[in-house]
DNA sequence: ATAATAGTGTCTATAAGACACTATGAC
DNA sequence: GTCATAGTGTCTTATAGACACTATTAT
């Protein structure tokens, strides 16, 4: 008769950002013995006394320099297939998290990872990632797409102030389709609590654009369907 | 310095059904030493070689008699707070699942549970459940509510064939609000792939009602908002 | 006939999408 | 002035919700 399972728990993070109009994911090159050298999602094992969320924040900071304060983590799913990590004799269960981050100056390599980089999602999905991280990445991207429909999460990809064009570029990049600028403008400025007018404008090549900051709303009702 | 955590993994299931127009949840009275005698969600520890989903199906069958074939499980979330189970010295992480079930003849008590019962959700939320199961139940009910908006999951609460009144009763019970019968009828019969006309009718006190079965669609687009 | 439940018609208000148009800057 | 980008107006079509109305059964 089989015995009660004893397992190690990992938190792995799908950290997404926007760079040059394309969705990117944070990847690290593995230093640990298991699957060493392969690209993987940032993450690692829970330590005594830590929750899965604690570990996700810690590993994200250690491996990519993304500090806890500026990053909201949402739980994606837990991956527990018995054969998902055959490198260890101990079973490994992974709790996956989704983080949406504003573009950073550079993906700082931390202490634990030999290398950390922002990789275009399209490219990452064609790479051989460690363990089942490709599936986790797929699930994370799909969740991000869905979140843009019914929450105000898109602003998490942008700096504190941004224009409606910036915001529209987020939707275009995550959904992979362009949106009508006029209708987008009306819809989002009318969504209660999504945007706050800063009173400032940003000048550029054309007419100056109003600068907004994220409002208090987190849900988007009615949703903004693809 | 803290050490890498070794944990036991549990799968706990929020199994919901409809009885007499009210949403009910399957609860079991605990037999194990930890929190013995308290009501809890059905569930238990992963055994060697099992995935969390395997364990959820096995425990659900053992403790409530709900067999795997008829029940779709959707992962809810993983609960990993260090203090969520202080009865064991080993850390316990729980993967929670949501199951929507058609009403059954009776909640059969299985071998592992001294007692198993369908309890009205309103009542269960006011009980002192074991561990953090009240929070898990809250999260499960909220997920079920959301699922009815953008999927065809409501039919999972019904037998193979059902009338539009039956289906409307599901929405009314889960959302806690009545819906206009006329608009409900139009909306759902026009939703592509939600309903298939069986050609049969069910007679009762008034005009006979068309019997439908669940169609192939799983997503509901556009969603049906509360 | 009456009550009860199933189902249709229709009107109104709201929203989405297409796209013409105006506004305001850089050059 | 032109070009580029921001933002508004307006028309069409689709949908939600309210609710009057018709349909078909049991009694």
From TrEMBL, chains A, B:
The keyword Protease does not apply. This is NUDIX hydrolase. Belongs to the Nudix hydrolase family. It comes from the Bacteria. Residues 7-142 form the Nudix hydrolase domain. One of its GO terms (molecular function) is hydrolase activity. Keywords: Hydrolase. It comes from Luteipulveratus halotolerans. The keyword Hydrolase applies. Pfam families: NUDIX (PF00293), WHD_NrtR (PF21906).
């Amino acid at each position: 008769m089989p015995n009660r399972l004893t397992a190690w728990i990992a938190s792995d993070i799908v950290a997404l950002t926007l760079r040059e109009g394309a969705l990117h994911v944070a990847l690290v090159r593995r230093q640990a013995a298991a699957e060493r050298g392969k690209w993987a999602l940032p993450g690692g094992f829970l330590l005594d006394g830590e929750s899965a969320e604690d570990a996700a924040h810690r590993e994200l900071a250690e491996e990519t320099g993304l500090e806890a304060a500026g990053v909201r983590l949402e739980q994606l799913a837990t991956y527990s297939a018995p054969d998902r990590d055959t490198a260890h004799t101990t079973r490994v269960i992974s709790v996956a998290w989704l983080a949406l981050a504003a573009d950073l100056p550079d993906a700082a390599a931390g202490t634990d990872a030999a290398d950390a980089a922002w990789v275009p999602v399209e490219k990452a999905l064609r790479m051989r990632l460690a363990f089942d991280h490709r599936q986790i990445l797929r699930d994370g991207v799909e969740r991000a797409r869905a979140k843009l429909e019914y929450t105000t999460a898109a602003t998490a990809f942008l700096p504190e102030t941004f224009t409606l064009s910036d915001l529209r570029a987020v939707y275009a990049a995550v959904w992979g389709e362009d949106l009508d600028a006029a209708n987008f403008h009306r819809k989002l400025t009318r969504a209660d609590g999504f945007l706050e007018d800063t009173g400032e404008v940003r000048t550029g090549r054309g007419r100056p654009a109003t600068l907004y900051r994220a409002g208090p709303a987190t849900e988007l009702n009615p949703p903004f369907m693809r």
